Amino acid sequence: NKYVPQTSAFRNVKYDLMQKTLPSPMVNAIARKSTTQAHYEEWFGTQNGVVVYQNGVPGRVVASGFVITAILHDSQGATWLGTESGLLRIDARGRETHFEYSPDNQSDGLSDNLITALAEDQRGNIWIGTQGSGVSRFDTHTQRFTNYWSDAEMRGSLSDNFVFSLLVGKNGMVWVGTNNGLNRYNPETDNFTTFIQIGRAHV
After folding, report:
1. What does pTM read for this prediction?
2. Which of 14, 55, 70, 159 could join 194 via S-S bond, C-beta 3.0 to 4.6 A?
3. Rounded distance, CA 115 to CA 145, Å?
């Protein structure tokens, strides 16, 4: 549904493959991208790719065939799509790069293909939350991943591997919402502080 402030009402946008209004009736993620002061795009992630609205008008469909779970427009003009089949990066020219989990590349590869959340930190790193494999951090300069998992025997690790949300604070801290508490990542110490209950925290 789209809210129209002039009429104080919602307008229903229906699934219509022929007119490309929506490539699938289920919408999982929404993000806005301002290309100029007068031009903007709205990206709607569905079970079958993303439809891009330009100034409110449905336009191109990208990542067709992918189940979209998260959308991020970064500071360098690229768009990142979290999917159930890995991570997609679409650069400013529209070129796509697909990153997938590989059991042969666990040291500096993506930790899982099922992605739940995306965020960009102040250093331009892309943070990727996954469903069951913790968090991956992608260094856009080295093109390598660093992975963080929950480990009961490791002080300062994540509290849980099921990640639902990510937020980068103004102070550079990265907040990670999980199935078992809230985690705050400190880039200076490279570890997490976990908040399990209000008023209680442990490292």
Report:
1. 0.86
2. 159
3. 14
